[in-house]
Specification:
This protein has 293 residues and is mainly alpha-helical. It has one domain. Helix content is 74%, strand content 0%. The radius of gyration is 19 Å and the shape is globular.
Length: 293
């Protein structure tokens, strides 16, 4: 039974665990965590456009963010200290870590601005499964072109690694990250593709995607907590914590796996998966097997 949007929303521990697994698996894979969470919430009988469910979708990402801090803790601290030193020392501003820190900071600004300006659209009409299905397929085309460009640049030996990243790279990739506010696009799919199009190698693009996730997802979780605090309380503290813990454990494993995967594999398998899933969703929606919201 699907609950009415204005009815009190209850979240069981089973639902919390399932959603935690989905978030952890898909947050950093280029398949769209929001899209998969929307699908999972729908299959679990939750009203996907209810404020409490929308807020939980953002809040559960905190678990994945903590996994990023844990996995890259030493590197994040190194970049932060380099940024602090560079603020007051001209020589320190020449270091690569200082430039990379600014690339992450500058790249994080666009998605925050766009998310605030379009918050009602993002939490409302865009939460339709029609949107998810279309975005899964359409952004796959962008990812395919990015992979083709990567192959061309790799064959020419002109790809750039982490030591050649610039603040401009961060800004451009950050602007593309704004498309990930559309459920089904995928934040990592957007940022990794943008990195490949900029001539950055696949591993570096993937790591930069992880770093750009920290401000964006943390901000989304905090904002939704304050914006929909009362609705979240109705879900229960226990299920919320459970979902975040599960998301943390699964996301940590996903980060380790994806970094190893992209060392010797393209994103083509993810592209194929996205297209197939999008097509299945269109079929299910068109046949009336599931409703869009």
């Amino acid at each position: 039974m699907i609950l009415a949007v204005d009815a009190p929303v209850e979240l069981s521990y089973f639902q919390a665990v399932v959603l935690g697994i989905v978030e952890g698996l898909t947050e950093y894979l280029p398949v769209s965590s929001t899209g998969h969470l929307t699908i999972a919430e729908k299959l679990l009988g939750l009203p996907v456009d209810a404020p409490a469910v929308t807020a939980y979708t953002a809040l559960i990402q905190i678990g994945a963010i903590l996994a990023t801090f844990t996995y890259f803790g030493k590197k994040i601290l190194r970049l932060f200290l380099a940024w602090i030193r560079g603020l007051g020392n001209a020589e320190a501003r020449e270091s690569h870590d200082y430039q990379l820190a600014w690339a992450v900071i500058v790249g994080s600004i666009p998605v925050v601005v766009v998310a605030l300006l379009l918050k009602d659209l993002i939490s409302g009409p865009l939460r339709s499964l029609w949107v998810v299905a279309a975005a899964l397929i359409l952004w796959s085309v962008v990812m395919w072109f990015a992979e083709r460009r990567h192959d061309v640049l790799e064959s020419q030996g002109v790809q750039r690694g982490e030591d050649a990243l610039t603040v401009k790279d961060g800004l451009v990739i950050g602007l593309v990250q704004c498309f990930s506010l559309i459920p089904g696009v995928s934040r990592s799919g957007a940022t990794i593709s943008a990195g490949l199009m900029r001539g950055i190698d696949r591993v570096t693009s993937t790591e930069l995607s992880f770093f750009l996730a920290i401000p964006a997802l943390t901000g989304a979780g905090i904002y939704q907590t304050f914006e929909n605090g009362d609705a979240l309380q109705a879900l229960g503290v226990g299920p919320i914590i459970t979902g975040c813990v599960v998301a943390f454990v699964v996301a940590y494993a996903s980060i380790a796996w994806l970094l190893k995967f992209v060392q010797s594999n393209s994103l083509m398998s993810f592209i194929a998966y996205r297209v197939v899933l999008g097509a299945i969703m269109f079929l299910a929606l068109g046949a009336g097997w599931i409703s869009a919201t």
